[in-house]
Amino acid sequence: MQSKKVCKLKKFLKVFSILFLFLIFIIKYIQYYFYIFAFKSKKEQNSNTLHYINDKYSVYINSYDGLILHGYEYKNKNKTNNWAIVVHGYRGSADNMWQVSKRFIEKGYNVIIPDNRGHGKSEGNYIGMGWHDRLDIISWINRIIFNDKDANIVLYGVSMGGATVLMVSGETLPQNVKAIISDCSYTSISDILSYQVKYRYKILSAKLILFLVDKIVKSKAGYSFKEGSVLEQVSKSKLPILFIHGKEDDYVPLYMVYKLYNAANSDKELLVIEGAEHANSAEINEKLYSKTVWEFLDKYMVDAN
Cys-Cys crosslink for 179: which of 74, 168, 288, 300, Cβ 3.0 to 4.6 Å? Predict the structure, then answer.
């Protein structure tokens, strides 16, 4: 009788061990799948290139954690102290930002177009989702001021770049930084990932997925989803901010821009473009987009020359 109980217990433990190991395998698979899919750097050649902008040249800085970061710099032919730092989006690169950069150049600005860490020609094995990138942008700001102590700087970003410049806005910044323009930013890293998992990929248990992926992102990339709150950074900002969003955006949903706008305690403006989807507001209504951007900047960017 005793031997039968022992036999059953052994069978139970064997089955339990197999199921437990299978569960561990599934958890690890989910963690690595989403990390590699969403956060692992995959540098790709872009078809939209800065070949359209002549006289640009590559510049480099060292990040706070020892990476060599690349960017393009364009010095306007007409001497100016006005600078724009133009920040690309998720899995993009500086090469994607030639149209925006050209607009700033035509308005007489000097321009820096960084490759975010893990993108383009910059070093890095992971995507920072704006959180670590915010410190990199501060390094680009400091580079500008080192070479031009009278610089007036606007930060402009689209999508993840928009989130990046808003994350920068909550830090203690030099007085040279005058304004922020954010086009289609998300409210936090956890919010955008939760939305993507639940609504775009139809996975109901988004919290469980985020919990699992957060652990591996913390170990591999060194930051937690809880840290990357754009809302919190915006609420601390003292800089004037122009928020832009496409009304039909289903990648970063429209409600997020209203949350961001309401969280801001500084001077702020909001532009929602009818018929625009994600990151194409300037294409859908270029006249209104440009008018709003330049009228906003005219209030805060005063060239010393």
Answer: 300
β-pairing verdict for 241-246 and 268-273: parallel
Identify the CA nearest to 124 among candidates 98, 157, 91, 101: 91
CATH class of domain segment(s) 44-188+228-300: alpha beta
Residue 247: DSSP 8-state: T
Domain ranges of the chain: 1-38+206-225, 44-188+228-300
**Helix, strand and coil in the chain, % to nearest 5:** 45, 20, 35
Residue whose C-alpha is closest to residue 145's, from 116, 177, 181: 177
Q: What is the spatial distance between Cα 281 and Cα 251, in angstroms, rounded to a whole number? A: 13
Distance (Å, whole) CA 57 – CA 59: 7
- Please tell me the pTM assigned to this model: 0.86
Confidence of residue 201 (pLDDT cuts 50, 70, 90): low
Token duo for residue 82? 């006005």
* Cβ-contact 83, 76 below 8 angstroms: no
Summarize pLDDT for 101-147 with one digit per residue, the tens.
Answer: 999 999 999 999 999 999 999 999 889 999 999 999 999 999 999 99
- Which residues, including other chains, have CB under 8 Å from residue 238's CB and lie 6 or more apart? 266
Task: Select from 134, 122, 159, 128 the least CA-distant residue to 43.
Answer: 122
Sign of CA dihedral 130, 136, 138, 140: negative
- Contact 184/303 with Cβ under 8 angstroms? no
Give 9's contacts (C-beta < 8 A, 6+ positions apart).
none
- 224 by DSSP, 3-state: which? coil
pLDDT in tens, 80-89: 999 999 999 9
